[in-house]
Amino acid sequence: MSSLLREAERCIANQNSYTALNALISTLHSSGQWLDRIKEADTRRAQGRPESRLDGRLVVIKDNICTRELPTTCASRALDKFTSPFNATVVQQLEDAGAVVSGKANLDEFGMGSHSVNSHFGPVKNMYRSRNAEDLSAGGSSGGSAVAVATEQCYTALGTDTGGSVRLPAAYTGIVGFKPSYGLISRWGVVAYANSLDTVGIFGREVSSVRDVFDILNQHDPRDPTNLSPDTRSRIGDQFTSPPLASRMTTNPLKIGVPLEYNISELAPSVRRAWSRSLNHMLQQGHSIHPVSLPTTQLALSAYYVLAPAEASSNLAKYDGVRYGNSFGGDHYDPQMNSYLYARTRGEGLGSEVKRRILLGAFSLSAGAIDNYFIQAQRIRRLVQRDFNATFLANHPLMPRRLNGDDVNYKSSQAQVDIMICPTAPSSPPALSSLVGEGANRSPLDAYMNDVFTVPASLAGLPAASVPVTDESTDSLAGVQIIGQYGDDALVLKVAEMLSNKRL
């Protein structure tokens, strides 16, 4: 039996063994199609012409990314019968590279949540448990994808990251989660939550597998208007692969930034130790550490929870039971009952968190509130981006160099750095009992606070990765986040490889 087939059978066995974790909504292996595809990949490898490093490997897709062979439900009652007539671009790219889609992963409904508990199919459970044997959160919204990778139910998985939905689950489950620069990976066929923030992200047990997937997906797609053009990609590549920045990928020591605003009093001791040990490890490798200030990032979370729900309220308006989504207003459409049909369909088809965000977004876009909320949040977003641009040594490759005939200087007088290292989440994963059921004692605001370290990079569109760091003194895991300048994805993955799975 080939190694590919053994790996696939182990993944399928794990899918059957870990059903209690509720990571997957649907699977393909019952049809047997996966076996034929892996045998074909085996033949190509034996002939020395594999499609890619992913050829014959099983991958899992978050269930808000369209697939032709498996339903796409967004973990919502409103879509639980929907099967897409096409593959999303990212799914087609993986299949063209020989990867085998083996399942769709559970998530927070429409990607709205931080713990993967807001699902029509029930919450995702972390494979780790607390010391008193309580089930723990897997993070969200891509918790199913993260658990599938962490328990070896697949080789790698795709998620989506709007404000931290790949990095947070990666931190909670002890794997690598990578959010590329906004616009590098196609969003065509991804069910939209917030168009200006949504990014397809990648999970892997090792940075090398994440890089393999990124190399396949990092292509121009003319069907996605937010996807970067070939000319823009060339301009970005020229900046980061030419002197003086190119030398950072070889022997030159890096300047590591430590954002002072991320050192909050609420930081859990285990997370603080992981952060400190990671920085000490980089020092021992010859790199230098520099404190930096990102003052506007303290407002980023508030701005995000205005902007993202505002875009969501617009994107989800189409799920009315007539044009999109399941109808809960009866079998026959009656124009005289429009308001009743819409209200019942959205009231019964959408979960409480989705309805909360739609209402919040609709309010912030209303005529009486838009200036005080949405417009102000957009200004904060621009200031967050300015703080990052002032701190990184590399220029933002898409920002104008001249304005009205004058040179534009974005840099501050503080130490300029190549990369930043900070925590991914302020604490370890909470117990599921505190999030759902009769024992739930956390408000939605508590859940939103988990995104406090991941949202700034999302608002600025920057590449960021979460890697697991083991505290050798306590054998506990924490996620450490690496953030780079826009387009500097290769350096983010390089530093992630330096830190990932190290016992520090």
From TrEMBL:
Organism: Aspergillus indologenus CBS 114.80
Residue intervals of the Amidase domain: 32-493
Catalytic activity: L-glutamyl-tRNA(Gln) + L-glutamine + ATP + H2O = L-glutaminyl-tRNA(Gln) + L-glutamate + ADP + phosphate + H(+)
Subcellular location: Mitochondrion
Gene Ontology, cellular component aspect: glutamyl-tRNA(Gln) amidotransferase complex; mitochondrion
Function: Allows the formation of correctly charged Gln-tRNA(Gln) through the transamidation of misacylated Glu-tRNA(Gln) in the mitochondria. The reaction takes place in the presence of glutamine and ATP through an activated gamma-phospho-Glu-tRNA(Gln).
Active site: K62, S141, S165
InterPro entries: Amidase, Amidase_CS, Amidase_dom, AS_sf, GatA
Protein name: Glutamyl-tRNA(Gln) amidotransferase subunit A, mitochondrial
Family of this protein: Belongs to the amidase family. GatA subfamily.
Statement: the UniProt record of this protein carries the keyword Nucleotide-binding: yes
Region annotation Disordered: where it falls in the sequence: 221-244
